[in-house]
Amino acid sequence: ILTYACKTSSAKSIVGVIPYLPYSKQCKMRKRGCIVSKLLAKMMCKSGLTHVITMDLQQKEIQGFFDIPVDNLRASPFLLQYIQDSIPDYRNAVIVARNPGTAKKATSFAERLRLGIAVIHGEQKESECDEIDGRYSPPLIPKSRTMNVTVGVPIHPAKEKPPINIVGDVGGRIAIIVDDLIDDVQSFVDAAEILRDRGAYKIYVLATHGLLS
C-alpha cells in the first residue's frame, strides 16, 4: 500500500528495504498449492517497486520471481566475526546443519572457519509425501459401459521417517547450529537435545532471522 501511494505520487523510483521477505519459506510447490512467495513478488512489482534489498533469502531462486533488481545481502560475515570474537575456544567447535537442507550453509561456515561439520538427519527431514505435485495421481480409468467395482485406486502409504541420527563427531566439542531462519523453535530444541546426548558440552544457535512464532 505504501509503495502504491508513492507510485501515485509520481515517485521516480521506489526502493524497498525488506530485511526479511515474508513468505520466503513458501517458495516451492507443495500438494498442488500455490507458490506464495511468487505471488507476493508479483504484487510488489505491480505496486510500483523498482528495486528490492533483502537479506538471506530462503532460496536464491526467489530472486527470479521478481521483474525488478533484487539485492540479496549476506549476514554470514557478521556471524563469522561473532563466532571468532564471542565464542571462547571456538577452534574446538563443529558446525552443525540442523537438517540436510542446511548442509550447504553449514559447509560454507566450516570452510571459512576451518572447522569440522556435522549433519542431523532423520525425524526433521520431510517425507516425500509432502512433495506431491501430481505425479502420484491415480491413472485415468478407460471409459467403458460397465464399471468394475473391484478396481480401486492404489494407496501409497506415507514413508516412515528414519530415526534421528548425526553424521559427524560432536563428542566433547562445541556445537554451533547455523540456519537462515528460526520460526518453530521446537525443532532447534530437539536438535540441541540430541547434540547434548551425543556429547556436545556447549550448543549455540546462529540465525539471520528470528521470527520465533
TrEMBL record:
Keyword Zinc attributed: no
InterPro entries in the record: Pribosyltran_N (IPR029099), PRTase-like (IPR029057), PRTase_dom (IPR000836), Rib-P_diPkinase (IPR005946)
Gene3D superfamilies: 3.40.50.2020
Taxonomy, superkingdom: Eukaryota
Gene Ontology CC: cytoplasm; ribose phosphate diphosphokinase complex
Signal sequence region: none
BP-aspect Gene Ontology terms: 5-phosphoribose 1-diphosphate biosynthetic process; purine nucleotide biosynthetic process
Ribose-phosphate pyrophosphokinase N-terminal domain location: 1-48
GO molecular function: ATP binding; magnesium ion binding; ribose phosphate diphosphokinase activity
Keywords assigned: Nucleotide biosynthesis
Record family assignment: Belongs to the ribose-phosphate pyrophosphokinase family.
Protein known as: Ribose-phosphate pyrophosphokinase N-terminal domain-containing protein
